[in-house]
Amino acid sequence: MVRFFLIVVVSLNILAQTPSPMLQKNCIDCHIKQKIPSELIYRRYLMRYSTHKEIKKTLLAYLKAPSKESSIMPTQFFLKFPQKEALDMNETALRDSIDVYLDYFDIKRRFILSH
Question: What is the model's pTM?
Fold first, then answer.
């Protein structure tokens, strides 16, 4: 009898992947400069909204008109990190950037399946 073992290994080093130039310019550079934990923010969105469709809808609304009230982050977050300013980006570019962001931080990319 042949036994198959499914081993799922979760990589903890998501940043070993190289972000696209668009993601780097529109998101990552600012997050690094201000020491804002991008992966933590993504995880909060994922836990609350579950699907990329819902995360994208919520992120788009937030990035078009950022406010502490519409943020997923707790009030204490804004004691350490600055309030996001609205991006000077057309809606198509903003949607594309959100898609790239979600693909980059997608938890499914962190699984390695082998047997």
Answer: 0.72
